[in-house]
Design brief:
There is one protein chain. By secondary structure, the protein is an alpha+beta fold. It has two domains: 35 residues, no CATH class; 30 residues, no CATH class. The protein is built from two helices and two strands; from the N terminus they run βαβα. The protein has a two-stranded parallel sheet with strand order 1-2. β1, α1 and β2 form a beta-alpha-beta unit. The chain is elongated.
Length: 68
């Protein structure tokens, strides 16, 4: 697989993201990885969408999402 020169993977510091298997996989692919702080809205904009889902704006049935 060929990656663009500007490709970077942004992950939070979840345990499974920091596992040896995940790090080895990205190293094998030659893709740089940046780890952001947990729940960082600034460096991981997708967290804003997750917050909307959890709060209910995009979850009218109020299905439980996440750990709580």
């Amino acid at each position: 697989m060929h990656w663009r020169d500007e490709t970077v993977i942004l992950l939070d510091n979840a345990t499974y993201h920091r596992s040896a298997e995940v790090r080895a996989g990205f190293k094998k692919l030659g893709v740089p990885v940046i780890y952001s702080g947990p729940y960082s809205f600034v460096s991981a904009p997708v967290e804003r969408y997750f917050a909307l889902l959890k709060r209910g704006d995009l979850n009218p049935e109020r299905l439980q999402l996440g750990k709580r």
